[in-house]
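=== Structure Prediction Worksheet ===
Name of assembly: unnamed complex
Input type: mixed (protein and possibly other molecules)
Chain count: two
Listed entries:
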Amino acid sequence: MFVCGGTNRRLTLVALALALLSSVVATTAATTAPAATNTLLTIKIGYLELLQPRPPVLSNVLPEPEDSGLQGTRLGLRDNNAGGRFLGHDYQLLEQRSDQLQPLLDQARQWQREGVQLLIVNLPAEALLQLSNQFSSDEILLFNIGAADNALRSQQCQSNILHTLPSRAMLTDALGQWLLSKKLKNWLLVQGQRPNDLAYSASLQRSAKRFGGRVLATKTWSFNTDLRRSAQREVPLFTQGPDYDVLVVADELGDFGEFLLYNSWLPRPVVGTQGLTPVAWHRVIEQWGAAQLQNRFQRLAGRWMNSVDYAGWAAARSIGEAVSALNLNAAKPLRQHLLSELFQLAGFKGRKLSYRPWNGQLRQPIALVHPRALVSQSPQEGFLHPRTELDTLGFDRAESQCQNLITGAVK
Amino acid sequence: MNPFKRRALISAIALAAFSVVSTATLASTAYVSNEKDNSLSLIDLNTLEVIKTIPVGQRPRGITFNSDFSRLYICASDDDRVQVLDTRSHQIIDELPSGEDPEQFSLHPDDSRLYISNEEDALVTVVDINSRTVLAQIEVGVEPEGMAISPDGNLAINTSETTSMLHWIDTRSHQIVHNTRVGQRPRHVEFTRDGNRFWASSEIGGNVAVLDVASREVIHTLTFKIRGIHPDKVQPVGVKLTDDGRYAFVALGPANHIAVVDAQSFEVLDYLLVGRRVWHMAFSPDQKLLLSTNGISGDVSVIDVERLKVTKSIKVGRYPWGVAVKP
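=== Predicted Assembly ===
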């Protein structure tokens, strides 16, 4: 590219670097503050997390982060404040994490008395419902970032909960659409024994039924051998059976699933909780402007952003967008706005995100990834919907037994 | 002769040869930045063919000429600098400090100040080109992107994508004097020739706002509807306005169309099918041709402005991003 002069160029570069350096120094002094606005509105957001012990698993080489969700929420707050300062809006995050539920429930009540009406909640379903039942839908608004349970979106809806974490059904539907579009119709389903594995497995079976996949057989992993030593012997025998197109695995904690890859009796792809995985977020997503979000997160947390972090970020940003639009911080009007057609959120997924008014779920495309690359994004082309293709993932209005959250509860 | 001198001589000869050719044809040339090829493609606007490919810095995106077209400024985003290309020799002759990750910028009409969006840092950096120093850094919202300066040079408008705001910057004080919230993910700003209005596109919001400079109000918001394409996929990015005030062209990203808008009545007149993921556009000097960069299909569409027809597509490098035309 530079035809002339190595030496000269190097000199120029040094000079330039010096110039740059001095300019940066000068710059720090010259940095202009934004149009000075006084704080007109303070928005306090509570963050609650139940710290759960992680049972021993076989595939434990790579540790899971211990602050999933919290860091994403913090980033969302930062992003809100970066824009909020131009409007006189100041966002504050109150954090409470505990390995006991009761202190969290008490804290929520305490905050609510002090005027905190917006909570971002990283709790399992049962605890979330307990928390939700403490409050009416007018006095508090909860954002669920920890519970993927389908029941929360189909039967046990609460009018004071919005879900930014995708349901299991959204994940397995995203996977099911991709499998069917690849003509991988015949599935061998392998599930773990824990309740979450069975829930994921049930969700996979629902997706198979919806999109025309066939579960040829379901096998439950009950071995207690150490697969790090013996996967090559155990897994081929375990995965014998009818001729399947794909091995679908339901192992949410990653106990045995990682060892199915390359060890199955038939040389077949592994998908589900391991192998090709449907996720709300992953480091490999860099399209749709996501590179900047990934970089911001990395700088803040010193690690990769995951699906729970994304749910926390999306919850905080939803609050930010709604507060900016309405210029107030009360739960009830914010909730109405969030569930209305006026609300939209740019979430680095290539299209605007919004909430389903019948169950409070954030509509969003689901990424299909393997550890080093984005493979696809669902909804897949050809899965049509009269309103938005995003509603082909998870519980559509007719499939959800929840009341319409706007007309049903807020009036 | 030492190697350095010999190389300089060879390049001088090559340069002379090239300038003979280029003056002989007198054609105007479109410069296209290829984001994922680290290169520029040069298109001869007479023959509509790529005549040259120039390697540049990493991830070139926004490009703009100075007023006499002797220099082209290039945002080399991943190199964290702005490169200066001599448009006669086609050599990079200088590099300017730009702040981190420069994406888009705008050259002040005084030809000496660049206003640069630093996407990673939520800053607008103002660089003095002659002294190569940073004059000011202005804190803006999250992920600043679009940047435009009014024809009289007094007002700079910056868009911040995640904050969904237009920041109005006084170019004398370098202070933000006003903020306007617009649709989600604002991407690009384009002033009318008289400077009384500007158009601002919102990619995820799916609309284009037209603002009045004097009152600082949104006077109209355009939306788009293309048969067979879901509204969520209609994502406006680039905007170009004809000097005669007749048309506005709006590039609609993954909808793969350019909307033709009556710039007075704001009525959408037509949608032109172009390549995939259309982002930015530029006119030929006589404004008879409009070129668009289509990132995913890796080509440039040529539109006949009089007939409002797409007449050709020209293969360029990977992920063409920006385009600028030199007479």
